[in-house]
Design goal:
This protein is α+β, with helices and mostly antiparallel strands. It contains two helices and five strands. A five-stranded mixed beta sheet has the order 1-2-3-4-5, sandwiched between helices. The longest helix has 14 residues. The radius of gyration is 12 Å and the shape is globular.
Amino acid sequence: MSIEVKNKIVKKWLVNNGFYNIQETSNHYFIRADSINVRMLVIVHDKFELNVEEVKKFASSNNRQAWVAKVEEEDHRIKWEIIK
């Protein structure tokens, strides 16, 4: 499954769960989204090396929670993992 398809699935989930102000990077790997109670930085899981310390640093400097969204190939379900 391409990163673009994974990105669309994650964005649809965000919209369906009350998130707004959804913005993505040009490479489709990162999404910023806001809700009433949460500001998120979502990393769409794919085949790349994730620098966890850099993600934590960026998320905390922007008052966001960092999450990794792993989209399942078969049924397009999303497994969420928070980065602490």
